[in-house]
Structure formats: C-alpha cells, structure tokens
Specification:
The chain is α/β, with parallel strands linked by helices. The chain is about 30% helix and about 15% strand. It has helices at about 30-35, 40-45, 50-55, 100, 125-155, 165-175, 195-205, 220-225, 260-275, and strands at about 5-10, 15-20, 65-70, 110, 115, 155-165, 185, 210-215, 235-240, 245-250, 255.
Length: about 280
C-alpha cells in the first residue's frame, strides 16, 4: 500500500465511473503534530472526515475507489503542485494573484478551517518539495491511471470527486429565505463535465431526498480543472456534502445516525456507478 493513498479496486470494473476522496486522509505523523501550533482535533477541521466511509461501497458496485491516506493539512491533493505559498514556504517568489494561495490554502496549506495557522514559522523549500514528491505525485499518477483505464475500457470516464463541506460554509453563502443546500455539485460551470452527466449525478442525489445545487459556493478545484475534459469523454464532478448531516463537526466523530445516512448514500453510489454502464453515450459538450 502506498503511503499516499489506498486504492480499492472491484473484482471487475463494470462502469466508467471512478471515485476519489483526496481530503479524507487521516495518517497524521508524530513529527507533523509535534511541529504544529494546533492540537490534533483542530488540525482535523480541514479533513473530509468519514467521506471515505460514505463511498466505500463503490468497489462492490464495480467502481474503483481512490482514498488519500495523507491529511489535507499536510498536503492538499486537490491543488496544483506549483500552488506554493511564500507565506509558509521559505524561498518561494510571490506568484501572480491566486485566491487559494492568498487564503493560505495552497498545496502546502498554511491554515486550517477558520484561518487558524498550522505552523510557527516557515517550512523549507526542500520539505515542501519532498511532500510533493512523496505524496502528491503518487496520488495523481494513480488517479490519471484510473481515468485512462476507464477511457480505454469504456470509451469514457466519469470521476466523482468526493468531499464534505463545513456547515458554517453553507450558512455563510446561503441566500436569505432560501433552503440551505445539502449537496453542492461542481463541474466548473460545465467546463469539467457534460450536461447529461451532471444531470444524472444531480438526479441521483435529488432522488435520495437531498437538496442539491450546482457550482455555488463550490464549483470544483484542481482535480475538476485538470482532469475534466468532456470533449474527450472525461467528465469530473466535485461532490460536497454537508458535514452536519452525518457527523459531529466539533468532535470529529460520526453522528448517531451515521449508519442510516450511509445506507442512503449506498443507494446514491449505486445510481452513480450505473452512469454509462449500459453503454449509452454520455454528452460531451
């Protein structure tokens, strides 16, 4: 098993759909925790805790599942490898304006949720490059391999990029008088996935009773941008699920109704895994 990820393959892949969870890693090294300003619980506020368990039935449905092992606070696998923050990495020139870097959320994050600083000082460029070599490149090499395998085997690939969102983030972006969304689907406003694929993914969640919106406040980050090529048959949709639906965010533990929620998600994942399985053409706008 790679130190960067865990890959769970089905006995036989029967669908062009693949799942990845780049932010649910929780292998926090003792060195990292010892050198951090924050305690372990605070650091975990950036983690998509338990998202791996919400989608772990995918291999039983014929779809591979790629799970990060390394934590997001250590290295963010949903950022470009060159999104380096000069405020936390020594010897980096200030890049052109990048809102992710400016907010402390580059490939080596400077902060966790709430803007709380992770480190006392700066990291060396050598340390940053080591993390990228050890964790970022292996994860994306495997993700690209999975996408290529689906393209070769099925003529198309549908990547479901699995995430969770803090409940307070939804509250902050909610429109007055409008019900709060429970699931946000991001396809970079159509640039990362064909319309028909997005409609099928939305129908899977809406059919299970979720309130679903598209692209606001999350339209998709690096993985959607880098891998989504609908004109070439590769579709990526980022899925953000409200954490308050299944976990206690303050204590980072599953909520009492976690298993019931996971059972609902099993039905959604089954619907998602069925996309393209019958050999029907997918839209490639």
């Amino acid at each position: 098993m790679s130190e960067a990820f865990e890959l769970r393959r089905p006995a036989r892949q029967t669908t062009p759909v693949i799942f990845s969870s780049p932010h649910s890693g929780r292998d926090y090294s003792a060195d990292f925790l010892r050198n951090a300003l924050l305690d372990r619980l605070s650091i975990r506020s950036s983690e998509d805790a338990f998202v791996d368990r919400l989608f772990d039935m995918a291999p039983d449905l014929g779809a591979p599942l790629l799970l990060a092992r390394v934590p997001r606070a250590f290295i963010d696998l949903n950022r470009a490898s060159d999104e380096l923050d000069p405020a936390v990495i020594d010897g980096i020139a200030r890049p052109p304006h990048n809102p992710r870097i400016s907010s402390g959320l580059g490939v080596i994050p400077r902060v966790v949720a709430g803007g709380r600083a992770i480190y006392r000082g700066k990291l060396s460029l050598t340390e940053a490059e080591s993390r990228i070599t050890r964790f970022w490149h292996p994860y994306h090499h495997m993700l690209k391999t999975m996408v290529d395998e689906s393209l070769i085997g099925f003529g198309q690939a549908v990547l479901i990029d699995c995430h969770s969102m803090p409940h307070e983030a939804i509250e902050a972006h909610a429109r007055p008088g409008q019900p709060r969304p429970e699931v946000v689907l991001g396809d970079r406003f159509g640039a990362a996935a064909g319309r028909d694929v997005m409609e099928q993914v939305e129908a899977a969640f809406a059919g299970a009773g979720f309130r679903v919106v598209r692209n606001a406040p999350f339209a998709g980050a690096y993985i959607a941008q880098a891998y989504g090529r609908p004109s070439r048959g590769c579709h990526v949709i980022q899925v953000e699920i409200d954490r308050a639906l299944y976990m206690d965010e303050a204590r980072v533990i599953p909520a009492p109704g976690f298993e019931a929620f996971r059972a609902v998600m099993a039905g959604v994942v089954a619907e998602l895994a069925g996309i393209g399985r019958q050999g029907l053409p997918l839209a490639a706008e």
